[in-house]
Amino acid sequence: MLVSRVPLPRPAACRRVRALLGGHPGCLAAVVPGPATGCAVGVRDAVGGARWAWWEQGERSAPVSPQVIASVVHAWAVAGGPPGALRCVATRTWG
Fold it and tell me: Do the beta carbons of residue 17 and residue 50 sit within 8 Å?
């Protein structure tokens, strides 16, 4: 799992995710933060192909770091979840 610390504009963030996954064949997930609360996310599927998506955080959820998003995407993929089926990552406070 790779996470960039440098926020990039959306097109550049998507290119960076592709480059990270392309340059690291063993990497399962890559995340690059974009402007504001969005980030580019890339994940490999079961046969080694890669899928990319742009995620925007919901207005009602607390901000989630790119590291947390990468961790959740990685865990989802390792558990066998289809890359396109994970729709959001949000924090929840139990009380």
Answer: no
d(CA 85, CA 65): 20
pLDDT in tens, the chain (95 residues): 999 999 999 999 999 999 999 999 889 999 999 987 789 999 987 677 788 788 777 666 677 889 988 998 889 888 988 777 777 777 766 66
**pTM assigned to the model:** 0.84
* Chain centroid offset of residue 1 CA: 9
